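Morning. Coffee machine broken again, so started the prediction first thing and wrote up yesterday's gels while waiting. Chain of 144 residues, entered below exactly as on the submission form.
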Amino acid sequence: MNARHEALAPQEIPLVAVDTMNRTHQEEVALVNALARLLQKAESEPPDVEALDRALQEWIEHTRAHFERENRWMEEYGFPAYPVHAQEHATVLEQLQAVASSWRQNRETGPLVEFVFELWPQWFLHHVNTMDTVTAQFLSPHLD
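Came back before lunch.
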């Protein structure tokens, strides 16, 4: 893993038609990148378990609030693909929680590294480029 590599560079985040969603995506990437820096540091020294725990919990809490807000908007404004979009939120939140649970039990950084640097960024970019883009276009007359 390259020491300068981040899970995602902020400029890589696709913009959608709702500014609130864009800000939430920026916040989420900042939280993931903070966790990524802790994982990079753990390559050359023992992991800072407390800092990793805090960073992971912040990410989970932010993600939960992010998804709940989007789900509420989709339901409130009658977005037709709400069930599919909400299910994808539920699936990735479960994956994040499973990785966090594994970390808390085993204190092994490998699964976290894979999720933070590979799995989540791929999912996130695809999700924003597809589901969030369409959802934001639908919601834009009602929000911001």
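The domain at 14-139 is CATH 1.20.120.50 (Four Helix Bundle (Hemerythrin (Met), subunit A)). Going to sketch it on the whiteboard this afternoon.
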